[in-house]
From TrEMBL:
Taxon lineage: Bacteria, Candidatus Kaiseribacteriota
Species of provenance: Candidatus Kaiserbacteria bacterium RIFCSPHIGHO2_02_FULL_50_50
Protein name: Reverse transcriptase domain-containing protein
A Pfam family matched in the record: RVT_1
InterPro entries (UniProt xref): RT_dom (IPR000477)
Reverse transcriptase domain: residues covered: 1-290
Entry-linked PROSITE patterns: RT_POL
Length: 343
């Protein structure tokens, strides 16, 4: 049976404020495992947010490190933090939980990272492709900031929301570009909000579904595999020629950057953000080493394990050894998790 690579917009069909409140307060969102506040969203909360939507979030200063904060501002990549247990926090977490419940089952197979149960380890494992495999790794610049509020509104309208509901959902998931208070003319998806990874997926899924469709139709002889992990793209190909690698590289650049309908996506052109690797040379993607049919921890994890082992040999301080042992346990558990996916 021929596999179908086309995908359509899922529907959430929020036509009135009552629909929105039912959607946010659905019983399935009351799950302590995901640390979702128990408080229900009321009409008063919605009214408050309409009047004070930009009061309950701030720019995150990286634990007080002003240098990193200033560097992020210069790069245009500001992380936002919502005041805990505020109305905006409750609504965003409940909205994300409702997205998980309703939308995750419709996510195309190539997407990872913004979907329940689809980890970066599984994404790397999906790229295993046998002998003579070549891996292409891409990274999108300022991914969240490149998705405008118009694009987010477009998704909600296509998902069956009225313009009024779509505008409200945009107001609680998008923020002004740049440092808060200094730039308010353009809004984009908020880096750091609970809803952002899933919304980024659904606001761009048409592009990557089209990319996958072209790869499967035009380069089927290379047995292409593609995975998306937020803003990281991985493609594996079986025994491609140099010309075919260039063709696929240019296809990725052109297709991702061609959609200007509320998007301004740009793909990094140079290493280490863009890489071409061969399976024979210990290829890595998302920090995981990828072999012909198996995966292993990446070089950074290998180095960190060696460092903590040396630290244990060189220190006798009880408190320090406790901290190092805890770090070692975390690294070893991670290695075990990666290895388990080869079974």
């Amino acid at each position: 049976m021929k596999k179908n690579y086309t995908h359509t917009h899922p529907k959430i069909n929020l036509r009135t404020e009552k629909d929105l409140l039912l959607f946010l307060n659905a019983k399935a969102t009351k799950d302590r495992r995901y640390k979702i506040p128990r408080k229900l969203v009321s009409q008063k909360d919605v009214a408050y947010i309409r009047q004070n939507v930009h009061l309950d979030w701030k720019d995150y200063a990286y634990g007080g490190d002003s240098l990193k904060f200033e560097s992020a501002a210069e790069k245009g990549k500001m992380t936002r933090s919502i005041k805990q247990n505020s109305c905006l926090d409750v609504v965003n977490r409940r909205l994300n939980a409702s997205f998980r419940r309703v939308l995750d089952k419709h996510v195309p197979d190539v997407f990872y990272g913004s979907v329940s149960g689809r980890t970066h380890i599984l994404a790397a494992k999906e790229l295993t492709n046998g002998k003579k495999t070549v891996f292409l790794s891409f990274d999108i610049q300022k991914f969240f900031e490149s998705i405008s509020s118009n694009r987010v509104q477009r998704f909600f309208v296509k998902a069956g929301c009225t313009k009024e509901i779509a505008d409200f959902l945009v107001s609680i998931t998008c923020v002004p570009l740049g440092v808060k208070g200094l730039q308010k003319d353009k809004l984009s998806l908020a880096r750091g909000f609970p809803t952002s990874p899933r919304l980024a997926l659904w606001c761009t899924f048409e592009i990557f579904s089209k990319l996958n469709r072209i790869l499967q139709k035009s380069f089927s002889h290379l047995f292409p595999k593609i995975v998306l992990y937020v803003d990281d793209i991985g493609i594996s190909l079986k025994n491609p020629s140099e010309d075919e690698i260039v063709q696929i590289r240019d296809l990725v650049f052109e297709l991702i950057e061609s959609d200007k309908n509320g998007l301004s996506l740009t793909v990094h052109r140079d290493p280490p953000k863009f890489r071409v690797q061969k399976v024979e040379g210990r290829a890595e993607h998302l920090g995981v080493a990828i072999g012909k049919s198996k995966i292993a921890v990446g070089s950074k994890t290998v180095r960190n394990i060696a460092i903590v082992k040396n630290q244990l040999l060189s220190t006798n301080d009880k408190d320090e050894r406790g901290r190092v042992l805890q770090k070692k346990r975390g690294l070893m558990n991670y290695r075990k998790t990666v290895t388990k996916n080869n079974l």
